[in-house]
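**User:**
My hope is that you can spare some time for a protein that puzzles me. This is the protein in question:
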Amino acid sequence: MENLVTERVAPDRQAVGLKAFARIADDWSLTLREAAMLADMSESTWKRAKRPGFAGDLTHDQMLRLSALVGLYKSLELYFNEPISRQWVKLPNRGPEFDGARPVDAMIAGGLPKILRVRGYVDALRGGA
């Protein structure tokens, strides 16, 4: 069996990512369940993780999710005015990534690959890709 070395995420980077995503979850009016599932956490872990001083470790996948969601948030803020920029993830969407579903539901169902595709989709809308 091969020994695998896992890289720990620096605590300050993890704290910044969690703080940013907690603010985004509030701005997007995500339910506890929606925010937890987007971050790939249980609801109880998300409750603890969004508070300052969270002592747990995030996985590489979770950090990638937080990073992609922060990028998506920024792209939405640049492309749309409020309130659409804040409501977009919860509005039914007929775009090619969604088939009439809400982007938040599509991202929850599709995990990190879908989150990355949605971010790319919005970046392309605003001419950034």
Notes: Helices lie at 11-27, 32-38, 43-49, 60-79, 84-87, 103-125. The two ends are 42 Å apart (CA to CA).
